[in-house]
Amino acid sequence: MTDPDAVRARHADGPFLRACRGLPHNTVPVWFMRQAGRALAEYRAIRDDHTFEEVVQTPELAAEVTLQPVRRYGVDASILFSDIVTPVQALGIGVTIKPGVGPVIEQPFRTAEDLDRLRPLEAESDLSFVMQTVDLLVQELPVPLIGFAGAPFTLASYLVEGGPSKSYARTKAMMFSDELTWHRLMDKLAGITLASLRAQVAHGASAVQLFDSWAGALNPVDYQRYVLPHSERILDGLSDLEVPRIHFGVATGELLTLMAQAGADVVGVDWRVPLDEGRRRIPDGVGFQGNLEPAVCLGPWEVVEERVRDVLDRADGAVDHIFNLGHGVLPATDPAILEQVVDLVHREGTVRTSEGDTSRAPVGGDAS
Amino acid sequence: MTDPDAVRARHADGPFLRACRGLPHNTVPVWFMRQAGRALAEYRAIRDDHTFEEVVQTPELAAEVTLQPVRRYGVDASILFSDIVTPVQALGIGVTIKPGVGPVIEQPFRTAEDLDRLRPLEAESDLSFVMQTVDLLVQELPVPLIGFAGAPFTLASYLVEGGPSKSYARTKAMMFSDELTWHRLMDKLAGITLASLRAQVAHGASAVQLFDSWAGALNPVDYQRYVLPHSERILDGLSDLEVPRIHFGVATGELLTLMAQAGADVVGVDWRVPLDEGRRRIPDGVGFQGNLEPAVCLGPWEVVEERVRDVLDRADGAVDHIFNLGHGVLPATDPAILEQVVDLVHREGTVRTSEGDTSRAPVGGDAS
């Protein structure tokens, strides 16, 4: 295992980690959520021979697909190829990732008794394949690795609904009707996520992103009461590790302030929110990431170009802006377009360096 | 056919229409999106013997299910029981409403040639069953009838995707890649929707609600460019009829201002947006409707009660507030809870009749 601090020191001067920390740098950093995946022929070639789970659980394959977009796009960060349900799957909860559907849970969680099926995560052993993947990656990655985990609400939504949902009716019914069971479930899931992320950092991840993908189904009152304390426990529980913590969810326009307050160093902004407006909702001292509409990349370059410039304009050269999509890369996206997006952001993105403009307290200490 | 102006005159003094017009009244009006439907045993009994399409297309059945929630809940308005795709289905576009899925289109729209399949709607003949339903309803309804139609973006999303979607990738791909075809499609759909709504009003509907259910998948820049002109054409095209026009979509927090500007008299607010914040985004002179989280009604009465009061508090006695859910009634909802919600809103909701002056509704306020 490579010394994780040495790994992080190697990347500390790059634009991604400096932007996460609000430190001056020269290039607007860019990466794409779900940059590894079906948009890439080299990914589809691997999936021709292997299931999604095989790729996630085989360190050489998981490392390879994590690296593919780094090679192809020249992005400034990589993110561990994994799934939100991977840790609970590793704990023996029966989960199938159904192509075109998503995770399907064999026995959904519906009562207090179901909680007994979740024991604490021993990340080194339960997720040994993840740790081996991280070990492989940090040896050779030219850019920092972002650790990956699902936040408790999103994870709970899969466990309670039994799969993807439109209304999250069963999840919310548990939340509103049986608050004690709800908080016990969220507490267990928070412990699992925290253990997974701490282990990824111990193996050399330079940052983490906590995906509360579906938290945007909640209004701020419910988010604050039923979700925030648990996500906060995770983010606070990482603070001693001194790696930037990114916090993201879809359709979270009304939650951006709270998602920052939960303990994020950077908040990811959904494409629905104009980035300048999103930034206004994020407290000073917390960075922001986003937020090109992913479907724009299905259009011709003239349209993409205009919208990339619009995102850069709205970011206004902020030292703590990280360019990304407002959600994941769509499978139908032409990789050549994403290559051009990276080039355009690197070429035309500007970072204001003048004192006072965008100054903020650095995250943690120096990573070296 | 009953004289439509006489019908409207009969309801004009009720709280729903007065609130829509921003006129003083004594009771906070309340109705529920999807108040007719699976939450009601009397609806399920009808569906045991009839498909969804049969109910929509048989005037006696459609009128009966429209009336059911009025009888059960004592709401202040009814809404035509129909589906967003009903007008295009009537034009011969093959559509099946799949239980648990939604509308599925036999031959999705993908190219300019597909547009030839959409001719203008002759509402009186193509939607004769709708007009007969409205005729039946306005004879006996104790409350105003709201006309129902899907807005062009939402309708286009079904036609282009071929069914419900999570990403609207194909719809947006057409929008970004082939703007001419996109606008031609939207123009045709706007014409169809306008014809349907005008005819519903001609038969006695006292208001209309334009459902742009999935417009919240767009950011304001794209909404303004690709959608707003078409929804505006519909809303403007109704102005001479002098019935209140309600405009609603899910996850539209960032679009509320634009949805008002499109020509709405009332904008429906999704549950994600705190209602006081939603109201701030809606220009003065335009009313607001909403926005109890629908899933709250799956919880115990203590939780429901607290949240109903929170919505009323945030509405702050505004003369132009209409109480509703932030989206449709969930099928698992206990109707007894919705009855209690109506009672509570009528009992405790206050309407300020002038600056600073609030009048409390009489205990047990009447629904009509």
Note down, in words, how this protein is organized.
- The structure is a homodimer of 368-residue chains.
- The first copy, chain A, has 368 residues and is α/β, with parallel strands linked by helices.
- The first copy, chain A, has a single domain, classed as TIM Barrel.
- Chain A is built from 16 helices and nine strands.
- Chain A has helices at 4-11, 15-20, 41-49, 52-57, 59-73, 86-90, 123-126, 128-140, 152-161, 169-177, 179-202, 220-236, 256-261, 275-281, 301-315, 335-348, and strands at 78-79, 95-98, 102-105, 145-150, 207-211, 245-248, 266-268, 287-292, 321-325.
- In chain A, the strands form two sheets. The first copy, chain A, has a seven-stranded parallel β-sheet with strand order 1-4-5-6-7-8-9.
- In chain A, β7, α14 (275-281) and β8 form a beta-alpha-beta unit.
- In chain A, α5 (59-73) packs parallel to α8 (128-140) and α9 packs across α11 (179-202).
- Mean pLDDT of chain A is 95; it is low at 355-368.
Short description:
The structure is a homodimer of 368-residue chains. Chain A has helices spanning 4-11, 15-20, 41-49, 52-57, 59-73, 86-90, 123-126, 128-140, 152-161, 169-177, 179-202, 220-236, 256-261, 275-281, 301-315, 335-348; strands spanning 78-79, 95-98, 102-105, 145-150, 207-211, 245-248, 266-268, 287-292, 321-325.
Keywords:
368 residues; alpha/beta; TIM Barrel; 7-stranded parallel beta sheet; two-stranded antiparallel ribbon; 16 helices; globular; disordered C terminus
**The level-1 CATH class of chain A:** Alpha Beta
Strand order of the largest sheet of chain A: 1-4-5-6-7-8-9
CATH architecture term of chain A: Alpha-Beta Barrel
Oligomeric state, counting identical vs distinct chains = homodimer
Q: Biggest interface in this structure?
A: A-B, 36 and 36 residues
Q: How many helices of chain A does DSSP assign?
A: 16
Biggest β-sheet of chain A: count, sense, barrel?
A: 7 strands, parallel
According to DSSP, the number of beta strands of chain A is 9
**Kindly, what is the distance between the CA atoms of the first and last residues of chain A, rounded to a whole number of angstroms?**
18 Å
Mean pLDDT of chain A: 95
Report the CATH topology name of chain A.
Answer: TIM Barrel
* Poorly predicted tracts of residues of chain A: 355-368
Proportion of residues in helical segments of chain A: 40-55%
Shape of chain A: globular
Going by helix content, strand content and strand pairing, the class of chain A is alpha/beta
Work out the radius of gyration of chain A. 19 Å
Strand content of chain A: 5-15%
Number of domains of chain A: 1
List the secondary-structure elements of chain A in sequence, H or E. Answer: HHHHHEHEEHHEHHHEHEHEHEHEH
